[in-house]
Amino acid sequence: MEKTTVVLVDATQYGSDPAIVRVIEKHYPLVYVTRQDDLGRVYANQAPIGRVITCFDFDFPDIASLSMLSEAKQQFTSVPMLMFTEQHSEALAVWALRTRIWDYFVKPVIDSSVTASLDRLNQLLAESSNRDPRTTIQQTHPLPDDARFQKHRGEDKSVDAASAYIDQHLADKLMQANIAELCGTNSYQLSRAFKRVYGITFQEYILRRRIEKAIELLRNNSASVIDVCWAVGFHDASYFTKMFQRHTGMTPSQYRHKWLTSRKDASLPFQLSTRNPVKL
Q1: Which parts of the sequence belong to the HTH araC/xylS-type domain (predicted)?
Q2: Where do the domains of the chain lie, and which CATH numbers do they carry?
């Protein structure tokens, strides 16, 4: 099967992630461009345009860089687009979904996941190459609020990368030394960085993120409390209940009952004290 050309748009502040460049180059023809380049001209040099995939690489996306992606999606509706980002939030992920981004990756990426996504797209584009093109009406969506603030790389880079990794692997056993190595630092420096940024230790941060995720999952009445317990990385139901009650003031079952009986009021009388408070 002929390989689709991948256009990688560098929308970062300090240069595209070398790991992403390597994994794409290993499997697909790669055209590397910057945000200043004219995508229309780039596509014009790739024949046919129906065999092009575009990847947007962000570190900390702001309004200008996200608008660039949105406008490209509006203009080139037939080109599937993937998004890589170092800064991650639920609002950003939802925006990407509504903008009809094919896939959304939080760095550091897992090579096999990126390759699988590209392979699937490559197959779909090959299958549709003989079909009549369709015009798709695209709707613009408001940019997430956190895009108003441009973050800068530096001492918090390892914290952002570690936080993103933790969010993606809450159900797994999370070892501080392993995560520090993945983020290009050591356990001691990562612990200090978390304390500086969040005001809590690395382990406390993991615990709070697990409780936050449990709060979210408990709103799904089809999931049992024990299912939620395992899904967020606890392997002891009694310990899960103890930690949940310590952070929220009620047991998981009590929380679910209270939320189900008061759905009209989205705010419960407690919230975890994190840098980004839980919205209940």
Answers
A1: 160-258
A2: 5-147 (3.40.50.2300), 157-261 (1.10.10.60)
